[in-house]
């Protein structure tokens, strides 16, 4: 199947922002039941996560592919550092870098 081809009989292809938790796993199953081809996407931004277990769960539920992208460097370079450099604060108290 080419990158642009959608599985026969499918309503279309969906990329689901997936956490591996109950909510996104139920949505994944529901989208499949509704006739969509579903791929799951996870972003590693430094959270404590068992990405391998989440990948396996998404595939077991029925995702056709699972993409896990390491975005830690981008998060720090493109969001955290500029936030600190701008001295961005929330309600004049909390540095936005902590959020």
From TrEMBL:
Keyword Ligase: yes
Keywords: Ligase
EC number from the UniProt entry: 6.3.4.5
EC class: ligase
Protein name from the UniProt record: Argininosuccinate synthetase
Source species: Coemansia helicoidea
Gene behind this protein: ARG1_1
